[in-house]
Amino acid sequence: LDGAATISQLCKRTAELGATHIAITEHGNLNSAIKLYTESPKFGLKPILGVELYLANPDAEYMRQKYISAWKSKDARFKSRLKDPWAFGNEEKVLAEIERKINDSYFHLTVHFKTYEAYQHFCRLSPKMNDRAIVKYGEVKPIATIEDISPLKGKITIGSSCLVGMIGKTLLGSRDGIIEPNPIKAEEYYLLLRSIVGQDDFFVEIFPHKVTHDWIRPVYNTDGSKKEGTGIFRQNECSPLWLDGDLQKYMNNFILQMAKKYNDKIIVSLDSHYATESQKTTQDIRLGNGDEAWRFDRTYVNSASSYWTI
Fold this sequence. Notes:
Blueprint: H1 7-16, E1 21-24, H2 33-39, E2 46-55, H3 60-72, H4 76-80, H5 91-103, E3 107-113, H6 116-131, E4 134-136, E5 139-141, E6 143-144, H7 146-149, E7 156-159, H8 166-172, H9 183-197, E8 202-206, E9 213-216, E10 232-235, H10 247-262, E11 265-268, H11 280-288
Parallel strand pairs: 1-2, 2-6, 7-8, 8-11
Antiparallel strand pairs: 2-3, 3-7, 4-5, 9-10
C-alpha cells in the first residue's frame, strides 16, 4: 500500500500534467496491469506495463559464508549486529539470524515489458516469487532472482532503480548494517544490470526528490505514551558522502557519473505515492495501519532542473 491513489486518479492527474504515457511498477506484483491497460486510453494515455521486483541478493552465498566465518572467529562486530547478541553462543539461533540477514539483503529492481511475451513470463513467474516470499513489517514480499530475468534480453528494459536498488543500497549501505557502503561494488552491480539486457535496454534512473530525513518508527512506553525521539522525521546524519544530509542527491550524482562514464541513457523517475496533495493523510494511515509505523516525508521538489550537479 505504498500508494494511496487509484488507477483512475493517477491517469487523470497524469493527463492533466500533459503526459502522453503512464507506467505503474508495483512492488512484486502485476495487480494493476490490466486495470492500467484498460483505463489509461480513456484519458488519452498509452500504458507501459512493468513491475518493481524484490530481487534476491546475487551475492547471498558469499554473505552467508562471511557471516558464518565472523561468528566462528568470535568477531565482536558481528555479535553487536545480532538481533539478540546473547544468542552468539547458540549455533541454531545464530544461523537463523544469518538467514534473516540474507533475506533482508534483497534489492528493488525496475522492469518494464517491451513484449507481450515478457508480460506472460512475469505472470507465470508470480507464483514462484510468492513461494520464495519473505514477510517484513507485516508485508509479504515476493522474491525474484537474477536467473528469473536473464532469459528476457531484448524483451524487457531495466532501470538502475531507487535508493534500495542494487546500486543505491550498495552505494549507501543499509541502516541495519547488513550491507556496508561500497562504491566499487555499486559500480559492479551497475555493470551487471546493464549486461542482463544490454546497453540499449538499460536506463539510468535519477529521482527529483530530497531524501534528507528518516522516519523513526514509534516506540511506546508501558503506559502507552510514545518514547521521546520516535515517530518523527530525523535529519540524516552527516557523513563525508552526503555533507548536506541528502542521500538522494549523492545517489543521483553517482549514477550520473556512471552514465557519463559508460555513455548510457538517463531518465527521470518519480516515486509517486499519491496523485494529489490531499491524499497524503490517507497514505500515512494506510502505511501505518493506524499506529504511525511508517510514512514518507513531504520531500518532493517542484523542479528537477537545478537539483543535482555533476
